[in-house]
Structures are given as structure tokens and as C-alpha cells.
Design goal:
Elements (H helix, E strand, L loop, with lengths): L10 E5 L4 H12 L3 E6 L4 H11 L3 E5 L5 H15 L4 E3 L11 H4 L5 H13 L2 H4 L3
Parallel strand pairs: 1-2, 1-4, 2-3
Length: about 130
């Protein structure tokens, strides 16, 4: 596989970065020269940070619950503090509202409520993206 460095020097926030699509996207961004703020509520995000650094990327792991505006603000502020700005936002956090871990916490939500929360999470990124 040929890597072009198309994200060289770009600061990227990847939510849901501890596993699955988020992890894969984060590692690809690191292979392409991206600087990464890896966000997840799982401690496994630290392992992804180590992998990205092993590839040569500058990366930070931010443990935050993006179900809350405070968690989203913590993530965006952490990325801006480290990199000065955000070039790329991969808003990957989520999953089925009927599966784990939602079922295990008893917080089953309607799709409407999940959509509202998603827009609130994304709103935390707006102030930093407007600076560009």
C-alpha cells in the first residue's frame, strides 16, 4: 500500500477511536502523517495512541464521555490545547442505541433523543472550527 502523506501536519480529532471504524481511521490518519486527538470513553484508546505513536504520529488520548456536552467540550479543548486548531473531525462515536453499553446501563433512548445528543456533541467542535 502506498501512503501519500496527504494529512501531514493536519490535526484530527477521531471520536470512538478505541475500536472498530474509529481505530482503523485513526491508524490510517497516522500513516498519512496526521496529528491525532483520539477520543473515547474506553481506556483502550491509550493502546491506539501507542500504536499511532509507533507509526510515527503525534497523538494524544482523551478519555471523555461524548454523551455529554461537558465530555465533548473536554475533547475539543484538549485537541485545541495540544495542536492549536482542528483541521479534521471524524465524528465516529456511536453505535446502535439498543446494544451494549447502553443496554448494560439501562439508558435506552429513542432515535430522536440520540440525534439531539449527536448534534450537541458536534456543537462543541464548532467554536474551534470557526477559527479557521
Amino acid at each position: 500500500m502506498i501512503f501519500t502523506g496527504r494529512f501531514a501536519g493536519k490535526a484530527a480529532v477521531v471520536t470512538g477511536a478505541a475500536q472498530g471504524i474509529g481505530r482503523t481511521v485513526a491508524l490510517r490518519l497516522s500513516q498519512e502523517g496526521g496529528r491525532l486527538a483520539l477520543v473515547d470513553r474506553s481506556l483502550l484508546v491509550e493502546e491506539v495512541r501507542h500504536e499511532a505513536e509507533g507509526i510515527g504520529a503525534e497523538a494524544i488520548a482523551i478519555i471523555a464521555d461524548l454523551e455529554t456536552f461537558a465530555g465533548a467540550t473536554l475533547a475539543m479543548d484538549g485537541a485545541r490545547e495540544r495542536f492549536g486548531h482542528i483541521d479534521i473531525l471524524v465524528n465516529n462515536v456511536g453505535g446502535t442505541i439498543w446494544g451494549s453499553p447502553m443496554r448494560s446501563t439501562g439508558k435506552l433512548r429513542s432515535k430522536r433523543k440520540s440525534a439531539v445528543r449527536c448534534s450537541r456533541r458536534s456543537g462543541a467542535a464548532v467554536p474551534c472550527c470557526q477559527e479557521c
